[in-house]
Design a protein that fits this description.
The structure is a single chain. With about 250 residues, the protein is α+β, with helices and mostly antiparallel strands. About 20% of the residues lie in helices and about 30% in strands. The protein has 5 helices and 12 strands. The chain starts with a strand and ends with a strand.
Length: about 250
């Protein structure tokens, strides 16, 4: 199963060329499931669907804001629910139910981020599925309380992620020798070219898998970061974030 996450940057910078870049990036992946953040509005979502090969999808705006989260799937979507900063869907694949949580956590408050991720874990604990993934733009690094909470190394608000979640980029680095990369790249991404910054690059876009026991674990075949190519017309990458793509051999496949 091929899975991807991509923050496509709700900005007019580089448009309209950048729209085609985003579409090209999505099509080049040929993912079974791709989750998107910062989808401008329903109209833009429909345009992406028109030029990509997905018959099953879900789009959810954030509150009254037109910008929202989207999940595109080649397999039937059996369930969907939006909660703050997260879109939860269940996809049916070969008689197995796979839960995906597409997150775009708030960038400006660790308190709000912690509140959101605790609510996500609480919500999905009531939903039955065979395999679970949390993926998207976490707006924080692997040293954050969010990552530590998901990995089972700390509690938040007197709760714990039990059992734990695993960051697939860390699995890829250890088992496949694929080095982790910054997905919010302040040095090489043209969005910040020529701009002064006192911030640092960070790996904010991630794919986590839930501990599967007693079910057998999927095998990670590959992981790669995409969306780094600079277009000659727009002079931009498709987004100010790079996406993350994984290919997993599911145990039942």
């Amino acid at each position: 199963m091929k899975i991807a996450t991509y923050n496509i940057w709700n900005s007019q910078n580089g448009m309209p060329e950048r729209e085609n870049q985003i579409i090209d990036e999505i099509n080049s992946l040929d993912s079974d499931v791709i989750v998107l953040q910062e989808v401008r509005n329903r109209t833009f979502n429909e345009k992406l669907l028109e030029y990509t090969d997905y018959n099953n999808y879900c789009f959810a705006p954030h509150n009254d804001d037109e910008e929202g989260l989207a999940v595109y799937s080649k397999y039937p979507i059996m369930y969907s629910k939006y909660i703050d900063y997260a879109l939860i869907v269940i996809v049916e694949h070969m008689d197995n139910l796979i839960l995906f949580v597409n997150v775009h956590l708030p960038w400006d408050s660790i308190i709000e981020k912690e509140k959101c991720i605790v609510n996500v874990i609480k919500e999905i604990s009531t939903i039955s599925s065979d395999y679970k993934f949390i993926l998207g733009d976490f707006n924080c690094s692997e040293t954050s309380s969010i990552h530590q909470y998901l990995s089972g190394n700390r509690s938040l608000k007197e709760t714990e992620a039990r059992p734990y979640w695993t960051d697939l980029a860390m699995v890829a680095e250890e088992s496949l020798g694929i080095k982790k990369e910054m997905t919010l790249d302040l040095i090489n991404n043209p969005r910040w070219k020529g701009k002064s910054t006192t911030d640092i690059s960070s790996r904010v876009d991630c794919i986590f898998i839930h501990e599967c026991f007693p079910r057998p674990n999927p095998a990670l075949k590959t992981l790669r970061y995409f969306g780094k190519e600079v277009n000659e017309k727009s002079h931009m990458c498709a987004s100010d974030h790079y996406g993350v793509f994984v290919n997993l051999q599911m145990p039942y496949d």
